[in-house]
Amino acid sequence: MTGYHEPVQLLNEKDKNIVRALNSLKEEIEAIDWYNQRVVTSQDQELKDIMAHNRDEEIEHACMTIEWLRRNMPVWDEELRTYLFKDGSITDLEEKEND
Which one, 1, 19, 79, 93, has least CB within 10 Å? Predict the structure, then answer.
């Protein structure tokens, strides 16, 4: 498996699963980018529709992985609760959270 920056033997199974999830998330985000670029540049509507469907499936996969990370890395939970589904300036949310 790739993605290890420290000796793999020092990581427990949970740590390895976190590496797996983060690598998968990176791959899903990359796939979303690829499909999205193809959607916005294609001139064939049927092909655009297929690629948009594929892109949206990758978004679903990324969201599922983020949810797994939220459940398994407490800081993900904390940060997602701070920033997601809020109105107003995103950068102001951190200040409000610290008040």
Answer: 1
Specify if 79 maps to a domain. Answer: yes
66: closest CA among 79, 54, 56?
79
Q: Which domain holds residue 43?
A: 12-98
| 65 lies in some domain | yes
Q: How many domains does the chain have?
A: 1
Residues 28 and 68: beta-carbon distance below 8 Å: no
Q: Would the pLDDT of 97 be above 80?
A: no
Q: Which residues of 33-59 are buried (b: 16+ CB within 10 A; e: fewer)?
A: eebbebbeeeeeeeeeeebbebbeebb
